Amino acid sequence: MTLILNILWLILGGGLLSGAAWILAGLLFALSIVGLPWARAAFNIGFYTLLPFGQMSVSREELSGRMDLGTGPLGTLGNIIWFLVIGWWLALGHLVLAAGYAVTIIGLPFAWVHLKLVPIALFPIGQTIVSTDVAYGPRYGWRR
């Protein structure tokens, strides 16, 4: 089912265009040394935007159990800068798109995707994209 939803998302939900735009933004961020932390965040959002069904964004610290550069104080500072400069605009855009898709029953899955993209659009540094099985496993004691 996730494959079908991802294909429909790419074609009808704007996922292909959005994902390509995020990957291009990541490449532009990577051109400057200052933009490197945000480049990784843009790539994460881009790949998540391409195939959002069956995946979710989780904190790397929560997943691995240890702090790294992006989940520590520097990551927090990077997230604050991101939020002030562009994050809240992106989140607002996803909320507007979610409201637009939620008007129709057929658009509800796409509205859900836009709501899933709001947290990572607000604070992307220190996040990683994993399958829902991996994400929910540690939270609820599931073992593979």
UniProtKB/TrEMBL annotation:
Record keywords, A-Z: Cell inner membrane, Cell membrane, Membrane, Transmembrane, Transmembrane helix
Keyword Oxidoreductase tagged: no
Cellular component terms per the entry's GO annotation: plasma membrane
Superkingdom assignment: Bacteria
Alphabetical list of Pfam families matching this protein: YccF
Annotated Inner membrane component domain residues: 4-55, 77-127
Bilayer topology term: Multi-pass membrane protein
InterPro entries in the record: Inner_membrane_protein (IPR052937), UCP028777 (IPR031308), YccF (IPR005185)
Main location, first listed in the record: membrane
Name of protein: Inner membrane protein YccF
Protein source organism: Aliidongia dinghuensis
